[in-house]
Amino acid sequence: MSITSKLPHIGTTIFTIMSRMATEEGAINLSQGFPGFGADPVLLELAGKYIREGYNQYPPMAGIPGLRQRLAEKTQLTQGYFPDPEKEVTIVSGATEALFAAVAAVVRLGDEVIVLEPAYDSYEPAITLNGGIPIYVSVNSGDFSVDWEKVKAAISPKTRVIMVNSPHNPSGFVWSSEDVDHLAELVRDREIYVISDEVYEHITFDGRKHISLGSHPELREKTFVCGSFGKTFHVTGWKIGYCIAPVDMTSEFRKIHQYLTFTTVTPIQYALAEYLEDPVRYLSIPEFYQSKRDLFAKGLAETQLKFTPSAGSFFQLASYGHLSQISDQELAEKMTRKLKVACIPISVFYSDKRDDKIIRFCFAKADQELLEALERLKELPRVL
């Protein structure tokens, strides 16, 4: 017997490949997007407390009431609206699950889903597995801003969903209020849903504010807002996220969620619920990551790479086309083997694998590790 693959074009992700290569080569891993430092000891102690106290059986399918309440309060404080914790907030096993369940809830066979690229690699498989057709619209080269006229032109009678991401992975671009208004105008009077990947919601720099699509009165009625506690609190391995959506959309979302994972690890939910009681623990995140962005940008300026400091996320792009025309994947492999610094080639984020000679670094690492990587990057010309 042989399996006819539903995803014949999908192999091992570049993130797995580069992290494995980094381990094999003893390289500093600035490729995969996970923090290279520990979480707040207070949060870790809370997790241990709830494990020890016996909170280890199934919680409610939608998440424990306390965590949903704290998340609604956080949303009120940071975004100015209060989703109903009982009917509009669902705790899930990571933002990737939230994105998949949102797609599965609304996409039917033959529906078109507009994807702004470069895009995170989980979007397209979720669309394809649910019978949808991804329609790719490239953002503007250079600053990675959205060309809203191109998005408008891509809308057809078959358009069911527009998938968006801010702060953006891989570029770090952060949407403005004008961007949000443009999107609202496009879906107004159209039966189009929005799936908003907001996992880097608390990681913005230079005074920028993340604007959740849920904070826009019109978009709130059509949007699945998908977020990640793992990204915010440096515990990506806990795989815990959430989805906020209107009542009818949440109802359909939960039908999918209950048969994907049913629920999410119990003691971690209780730990996060208690941890979120102090808003400083998430309001201080931008300052924490800006110090790392600034340190990395200062060092990167002493290399021959060209870049614009990231506006958000914990990623920094850098271009090398003025130095060499080798492919970004070849450069990433050479850097890992010869400089012992691993990065991600940006071509993997495009459906057509276009190569603009740009690479992505993750600066969510210990300062000393970043400084050592930056010293090694000064030697880049010798590997080209």
UniProtKB/TrEMBL annotation:
GO terms for molecular function: kynurenine-oxoglutarate transaminase activity; pyridoxal phosphate binding. GO terms for cellular component: cytoplasm. Its cofactor is pyridoxal 5'-phosphate. Keywords: Aminotransferase, Pyridoxal phosphate, Transferase. It holds the Pfam family Aminotran_1_2. SUPFAM superfamilies: PLP-dependent transferases. Residues 28-376 form the Aminotransferase class I/classII large domain. It comes from the Bacteria. Belongs to the class-I pyridoxal-phosphate-dependent aminotransferase family. This is Aminotransferase class I/II-fold pyridoxal phosphate-dependent enzyme.
